[in-house]
Specification:
globular; 6-stranded parallel beta sheet; 3-stranded parallel beta sheet; binds zinc ion; alpha/beta
């Protein structure tokens, strides 16, 4: 029996988006999802960090809204089903219909308008990644942007607006994703949030030093608050570059990071994502059609169906349910 597989972070091409119902050059489209047994895909309304003025924030907000509407429309026509709750994802899986979900990457898209958070949830988004690369009005990024004149730290973690945004996300039931956020910002967010946080695409600094990775203290914090760390298929997060300067990582390298996180904080706090079409791709899991290779590697290392189910979706769904239960 195949597990319910949720890939929690997949980018889309924008604005020239190919028709995802047929085979495309993208890592993820509907035919590849079906072949690889990927049951559910969280597609991202991604907004790159830009200038923090009125025009920049307005353009970012408009882009996020259009992308969320587009992702929702992907599920029109019956070939896939747009899902906004864990129950809907499970029902879609039971019916054998691929599930489409959406999320917003980069709180820059809200500018200073806390009202966008409820609006995104209304459009179906399930999480917000607080920052991308570059500090925004909410928090410091793990990767400050020199070309945007970022200091090493601007807010010392979260800004007062960032704290208000987290309270609003808790209120409306939008999951908090701390990928891309500085260590201080992530630790503060985990403590502040009334419900567990997720880190939807990351890896382990203990195995590969990279500013986007979580160190063991951060992993411990995830366990402490009952959250989940989704280990992702970005080669440069998983392995140091070779002598030729090129990083080549494999399914086995990815699962090494999964196992480090499991040893450190327990299987209940670890998951898997691809970051496909946003830089994710490893040898053996280069696109959605190869998703079963991850399951096969976990099986080879002795994990059973229950454990693999938790890693692929059970832990993420648990956190999401806690977020929804805590809302209001
Ligand atoms: Zn990202």
């Amino acid at each position: 029996m195949n597990p319910l597989v949720i890939d929690t972070h997949i980018d889309i091409r924008w604005p020239e988006t190919p028709d995802w119902l047929s085979e495309t050059a993208q890592c993820v489209d509907l035919p590849k999802m079906r072949r690889g047994g990927m049951s559910a895909a969280v597609f991202i309304a991604y907004v790159g960090q830009g200038v923090r003025d009125h025009a920049g924030h307005a353009a970012a907000s408009a882009r996020a809204d259009s992308m969320l509407r587009h992702i929702r429309a992907r599920a029109d026509g019956g070939a896939a089903r747009f899902c906004e709750t864990p129950d809907q994802v499970e029902a879609s899986f039971a019916a054998g219909i691929p599930a489409v979900l959406s999320a917003v990457e980069n709180g820059y898209a809200m500018g200073h308008d806390l009202g966008r958070i409820a609006a995104w949830r209304k459009l179906g988004a399930i999480y917000l990644t607080l920052t991308h690369d570059g500090h925004n009005a909410l928090a410091d990024s793990a990767r400050p942007r020199k070309n945007l004149h970022d200091a090493e730290s601007e807010h010392g973690g979260l800004s007062p607006l960032g704290r208000a945004a987290i309270a609003e996300m808790n209120r409306v039931g939008l999951m908090l994703d701390c990928s891309h956020v500085s260590k201080a910002g992530m630790m503060q967010a985990a403590e502040l949030s009334r419900v567990p946080i997720a880190v939807t695409h990351t890896a382990c600094a203990a195995l590969c030093t990279h500013p986007r990775n979580l160190d063991d203290e951060q992993l411990d914090m995830i366990r402490q608050v009952g959250g989940v760390a989704q280990i992702t298929a970005v080669a440069s997060f998983l392995k140091a570059p070779g002598a030729n300067g090129v990083t080549q990582a494999s399914v086995s390298d990815l699962v090494d990071h999964v196992e480090h996180a499991i040893r450190r904080i327990g299987l209940d706090h670890v998951g898997i994502s691809s970051d496909f079409d946003g830089g994710g791709s490893v040898i053996g899991w280069a696109n959605a059609a190869e998703t079963q290779n991850i399951t096969a590697e976990l099986t080879r290392r002795g994990y059973g169906a229950r454990e693999i189910g938790l890693l692929w979706s059970g832990n993420f769904l648990r956190v999401w349910r806690q977020v929804l239960r805590g809302a209001g």
